[in-house]
Amino acid sequence: MTAPGPTAEKVTAQQPPWPDPDRLEEIRHALSGRPALIPPEEAERLTRRMAAVQRGEAAVLQGGDCAELFADAAPRVVRRKLGQLRELSTAIRTGLGLPVVTMGRIAGQYAKPRSAPYDGLAGGGRLPVYRGDAVNGAAADPRARIPDPDRLLTAYDRAAAVLSTMRDEQMAHDDAERIYASHELLLLPYELPLIRAAADGAGFASSLHFGWIGERTADPEGPHIRLAASIRNPVGVKVGPSATPADLVELARLLNPERRPGRLAFIVRMGADRIGWLLPPLVEAVAETGIPVVWLSDPMHGNTIRSGSGHKTRTLWAIRDEIAAFHRILRDRRQWPGGLHLEMTPEPVTECVAEAGDAGAAAFPRFRSPCDPRLNPEQAAETVHAFTSLLRAG
Ligand code: PEP
Ligand code: CO
């Protein structure tokens, strides 16, 4: 008898079913010859800034679209997103009197892990899921949903365009207020060819400043954690309801063996109904290792519900509740509740609602996200204000 093999989920590790392996190989080769999108010094600088967060001397705001669209690489659209990030981080900074490390889910947030391989259609039948613009198209058309490896090159080009707008926009601002680029480290044929050697010979991901590993690919033995371990950039790992204290201890050892402050963040996304009993043993186990980590709250991904009309939504009530529990649990254990990871947009969308009773069909006249529901500007400001008030009171 052979040893039991890994599960299908582990084998595929959320990698899309690319139909043309030869073309995929050509694209990987092309990406390996492209210039770095981010210089390693900028990623190092972010690590130093995250070290201040780890010491409790700064806070983090990380936010943006669930799925960034190629069409939104236009400078006008990017500037609006940067404006929202700046406004919110200024609100935290003035509210707390502390520096804020600002990161967009931007300039490469083009790939999505999915819970199921198909979307059910209202009239019966099914459609392969949308996996982000770097993979396939969001249109409800079976042809659009076929993964296309050439989209990986477009992702690189659009990320370069967005970063160029970010650099232009940064010129009007102090260096301490820099906005960093972050996305989920998901697509291995995109990320691996873009790993470059830094001056000291260590690998670094040249596609981003900060990368995170999603909840579905955070297996300590999986290829994504191996990827994160091989780069020097600051990295995060999403921590969901299935994470055990032993998992987190192992992840902390694998991802921060040198105990570099600012290198590793745990991004907690448990759900308001579960965080109260799931998070305390995790925080305690990690604290006991003495390995420095930054704790962030993603109050979005554990609180997704399906409205009666079939829209994916989230209530502000659950979001605030999860943030409050996160804050209390960390504070009670003498750890710094370092910041927020939000899905948000500067556009006046109607995707999240105040409370579950508001989730009737009429509540979503402007639901535009091809993936998860985002906070609109007022909702994002309210959420940030709630967090800032808790930190100030604490
Ligand atoms: C996301 O951040 O969009 C996401 C899919 O999160 P998670 O991996 O936590 O589910
Ligand atoms: Co999302």
UniProtKB/TrEMBL annotation:
Cofactor note: Binds 1 divalent cation per subunit. The enzyme is active with manganese, cobalt or cadmium ions.
Region annotated Disordered, chain positions: 1-21
UniProt keyword Transmembrane helix present: no
Enzyme superclass (EC): transferase
EC number, as in UniProt: 2.5.1.54
Cofactor: Mn(2+); Co(2+); Cd(2+)
Gene3D superfamilies: Aldolase class I (3.20.20.70)
Record's protein name: Phospho-2-dehydro-3-deoxyheptonate aldolase
Organism: Streptomyces iranensis
